[in-house]
Each structure stands twice: as C-alpha cells, then as structure tokens.
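FW: tagging you since you asked about this chain on Friday. Here's the raw sequence from the shared folder, copied in full. Didn't touch anything.
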Amino acid sequence: MQRDVFVSYSQADRDCALELVARLEAQNIGCWVAPRDIEPSADWAEAIVDAIASARLMVLVFSASSNGSPQVRREVERAVHRQLHILPFRIEDVMPSRSLEYFLSSQHWLDAFPPPREPHYARLCAHLRTALARDGHAAGPEPALASPAIRVPGPVPAATAFAAPYLEEIEATLATYIGPVAPLLVKRAAARSASASELLSRLAEELESSGDKARFIEACRRFRGV
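HL: got it, structure written out here
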C-alpha cells in the first residue's frame, strides 16, 4: 500500500491517531505514522523527513496537546516547506497557538467532536479519497483488491567532500532557521555537492524567504574547511 498520508500527532493523542490510521488503511488509504513505520535502527529525524517528503497529504490530529508540541510544529513546518496540503483533524475545540497559526490559518479544518468519532473518520476517509484523486494520486483500490507495494526510501550517501568542522559550522547556522533537522539536511546536501557553492545553494533552498536564503549564504561564506 502506497503511504500517501503522513499522520502527525502528539503522544497524548496516540490512541486516536492509531485508530484513525486503522480506519483509513481499511479503505486502502496508505498512512505513515510514527513510531510504527520507523525501523528500530533508523534515525528518527531522517525517517520523519523522508516520510514527509514522500507523502501527498498530512493529517494533523489537532488537540490542546498537539497545539503545544514542538515535534508537531516541526513536522508541520516541514510539510509547509514541501508544499504539502495539511488537513487538521480537530478532536478538541481549541484554536492554534501563534506558532501554529502562521502555518494553519488558511487550512480547511475537519472537526471531529463531539463523540463518537466514527462518523468523523468516515468523513475524513471520503475527503482524503477526493483530495488524492484530485491531485492525480488516487487512493488504493477498494478493500479485497491488490494494493501497490510500499515505497522504501533509499539510503543517504555519506558526505566525504567537506571537512567535519566546516559542516558543523554550516549545521549550526542552518539550525537557527529550521531547527534540529539541520544536521540531516547538511549531511544529504554535502553528499550530493561538488563544491561549497553548490552545497550552500542546495541548503538555501530549504529556507522559505529570499531574504533568509541570502543571509544564510552570506553567513556561511566566511567558513573555511573544504
């Protein structure tokens, strides 16, 4: 089953998230959800970034708990950067905090209260099937028919062209813009770049505004160690 839907949630809402995933996958709407889909030996941040990059939609199980979760905010930020459509599945009558409002204020909300949640799960399934079909990535066939194989992300090549202290300086600078995912992005970009200029250009593409891109490149140009 192709995993088109990334499910973001806070630990306090784990039962709801897994119940939601079970309902969607019963309709052959493939989901990626942590920790179920993270291999025991895998890097957690790398697995999250890979899953968001390969997803078509994000469903955010939204509650007071997820509203204040730094991990949820980072996942939403990455999804927005990847231009991923986000559907907040609101299980409590709360409004987004300022840190999430910036990313979610223009999104369509699907309220999943009051209980029972079963009718809300059914509406979510119908909405996602329509959204995936509209984007040209239809959900899997009806239950009892064969499903496509799961996509497995390829390995990340090791970076060898740049000195470690140089990459550490780059990571620290990038982290001021995008947080803890910076080391993973630097590792990947370094493995695919033949020069410092190409490395900085690749990493600048991870930033939202042209101003941030220019400031990041300017700050990193003083570093040496290639």
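FW: The two ends are 43 Å apart (CA to CA).
HL: agreed, and Residues 164-220 form one domain.
FW: great, closing this out.
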